[in-house]
Write a structure and sequence with these properties.
- This protein is an alpha+beta fold.
- It has helices at about 15-25, 75-85, 135-145, 200-205, and strands at about 1-10, 25-30, 35-40, 45-55, 70, 90, 100-105, 110-115, 125-130, 150, 155-160, 170-175, 185-190, 210, 225, 230-235.
- Strand 7 (about 100-105) and strand 8 form a beta hairpin.
């Protein structure tokens, strides 16, 4: 199994997906009714897919996962280009910080970051900060689930793809516990591989502090689960040969 997708709720998946394609330089994989999927490549290799899926109403739950974009020495130029694509400046109570907080065309907050040595080789997405009630525990959980390795960073715990390329997954102290019934507007998806035993993996997820959600969304080809801090993720079936 491996970390494959960022799943992003959208009231207009094509509009939001096209914004992020322009922002990141990704390549369209799929455009269907209610879904746009686009692929981020690092050094010509697949790194991460962003999958925008229609939801009937805006998801106003607190963002426990967001995108930090690499800005570095061109931070202001990057932010200005994103504003020209439709991004807006946001005040989320960040105060005086060295990064710039923007909202995308559906209001999702993201950051354009200052230069940090840990961002070498990340590509346009520098990091994926994920709220956690216990970063050490959750880093161990996500390392097992995703196959990513501990890496240097500024968060309490940081993971990265074994190649050493692509964005960092940062486990950050949550400002508040996950709200009961709230659904993360952005979540991670794990893809099973041939030979993986889904039932055994779900049992291990539960043993490590996660849980499976039994939703009323109809029949789905994937299973919906939560990590030990309550962050949703999907367990996708192995890809067809």
């Amino acid at each position: 199994m491996f970390l494959e997708n960022l799943g992003i709720d959208a009231t207009d998946p094509v509009r939001l997906g096209r914004f992020w394609e322009e922002a990141l330089g990704t390549t369209t994989v799929t455009v269907e009714d209610g879904v746009l999927e686009t692929r981020l490549l690092i050094d010509g290799e697949s790194s991460l897919d962003l999958c925008f899926v229609r939801v009937p109403t805006p998801n106003d739950s607190p963002q426990r996962l967001h995108l930090d974009l690499r800005g570095g020495e061109q931070q202001q130029e990057v932010a200005d280009r994103l504003r020209s694509l439709g991004a807006v400046d946001l005040d989320i109570g960040q105060g005086e910080v060295p990064w710039i907080v923007l909202g995308d065309v559906e209001g999702n907050a993201f950051c354009v970051m200052e230069r940090r040595p840990a961002y070498t080789g990340t590509g346009p997405i520098a990091a994926l900060p994920l709220d956690s009630s216990d970063p050490s525990r959750d880093a161990d959980f996500w390392a097992w689930l995703s196959g990513w390795n501990p890496a240097p960073g500024v968060a309490p715990r940081t993971l990265r793809h074994p190649s050493g390329r692509g964005p960092l997954l940062e486990l950050c102290e949550e400002p508040a516990p996950k709200r009961p019934g709230a659904k993360n507007p952005i979540h991670l998806d794990i893809r099973l591989e041939d030979g993986d035993d889904a039932r055994a993996i779900v049992s291990e997820i539960v043993a490590r502090g996660g849980r499976e959600l039994h939703h009323d969304w109809g029949e789905l080809p994937w299973r919906v689960l939560q990590d030990p801090s309550g962050n949703e993720f999907c367990l996708l079936p192995a890809a067809a040969p």
